[in-house]
Amino acid sequence: MFETVLVANRGEIAVRVIETCRRMRIRSVAVYSEADAHALHVRMADDSVLLGPVQSYLDIERVLEAAQVSGAQAVHPGYGFLAENATAAARCAEAGLTWIGPPPAALATMRDKVTARNAVAAAGVPVAPGPDTAAPDLDTAVRQARELGYPVILKTVVGGGGLGVAVVADESELRAKFATVSGQAARFFDAPGVLLERYLPGARHIEVQLLGLPNGHVLALGERDCSVQRRHQKLAEEAPAPGLTDELRGRLARVARQAAEVIDCPGVATVEFLLDPASGDFYFCEMNLRLQVEHPITELVTGIDLVEQQLLIAAGEPPSFDPDEPPKVHGHAVEARIYAEDPVTFRASTGKITKWQTPAGEGIRVDSGYGARDRVSSYYDPLLAKVAAWGPDRPTALERLRVALGQLRIEGPTCNIPFFTELLDDPGYAAGNYDTSLVGRLRLAS
User: What's the whole-model pTM score?
Assistant: First the structure.
């Protein structure tokens, strides 16, 4: 096992990785920008190294220098920033460091949505109707959409987090929105081209958690429902997904493992699908080869520390459980992402946190990168915390989450806590009968 791990991230995910390192008696090294000099992840780590300006988390060479001067043997990228950067993984290997994640070739395949789509389709994984090439310009996009039929979803070839996505109902909308999406592709991801797929109204967003073992075997550790989204960005998740038959759960797991067989996939990975609730048909959306933001609910229903498994597998060791008898899902867990943003408009908020009081109690877990007197800046994602609740059944988990959110006190920046009260009061959500259009309906109703 590694003696020292450098955590190449910030906020709650950096804190999350550091906590597991501490439990495993691994020395942790935080990196930080000038804006994060007093951040919680810096205070928690055993050591820390300044990278530089606010965008320096993306500077691969500075991260490598920090690893070398700190004596780290491995780099954990968390999610975001460098986590799915094939160049970063390759540079780590060249520097003699272990990248806690898949090899560069796997990252390169799944980073490009067209390449990923074509690779899994060739392996028999169902994909949404659409062309197998990106549209480099508007004329090509118009032609592809006419052949495909509306509504159509536009996606940047590279990217995530809801950025670079637009749904268009007809050609006039396509002509109006194509320039925006293609501009985001060039500006944010340095990857021109737009992927078109048939849009599936009323779909559910279901994802399967995978764990790739050193021997190449891939385990499925249950699924999550991530359909509560605004602007294609997740707000709340639950595990297991409500209302699925055992047959459908098994099919999702099998197809997810089938997608993973396309690449070399040690450690954690997640295959995301769009599910048609009426027919039970589902289609590959993307495969993320890193820890998901919503991983705590899988940990709550399986009892597995996914960060621990990442560290073990990266070190060439077996997982902490018998892989021939992987833990089964027990109970139900639900998670709310607490953002510094307006609960109605979702406009981001900044400022000093003047009060920070987190809930506690049976089945409650809070992952956070902030505390009282910390400052929320405009430089980074406004995620403040994730509040998760476990219960022996879904109603208990939902009620525990409601109580926990009532105990949560964050003052200073505006937070979206009231949104989750509205969500929990929605009859469709309470019954587990909802899809990706839920937040839009709630906003129209308000």
Answer: 0.96
The answer to whether the peptide bond before residue 242 is cis (omega within 30 degrees of 0) is no
Domain residues for 77? 4-100
Asked if the bond preceding 151 is cis, omega within 30° of 0, the reply is yes
230 an active-site residue?
no
Question: For residue 136, what pLDDT is reported?
Answer: 93
Calpha distance 288→90 (Å, rounded): 18
Query: Can you tell me which residue has the tokens 């009620």?
Result: 399
Distance CA 145, CA 232 (A): 21
**What are the residues facing 50 on neighbouring strands?**
32
Among 79, 100, 121, the domain-final residue is: 100
> CB neighbours of 427 closer than 8 A, spacing ≥ 6?
none
Q: Which of 62, 290, 365, 394 is catalytic?
A: 290
Whether residue 189 is found in the same domain as residue 208 = no
Task: Indicate whether 446 pLDDT > 70.
Answer: no
Cα gap 174→151, rounded to integer Å: 10
Taking residues 258-285, report their average pLDDT.
Answer: 95
Beta bridge partners of 166: 154
CB 195, CB 155: distance < 8 Å: yes
Show the DSSP H helices in 170-305 as ranges.
Answer: 171-189, 246-260, 295-302
Query: Are both 9 and 70 inside the same structural domain?
Result: yes
Tell me which residue of 74, 402, 51 sits closest to 236, measured CA to CA: 402
Whose tokens are 């059944």? That residue is 393
Of all residues in the chain, the percent with pLDDT exceeding 70 is 99
Share of the chain above pLDDT 90, in %: 91
Cβ-based neighbour number of residue 103 at 10 Å = 17
pLDDT tens digits, residue range 91-104? Answer: 999 999 999 999 99
Average pLDDT over residues 274-287: 95
Q: Is residue 413 part of a domain?
A: yes
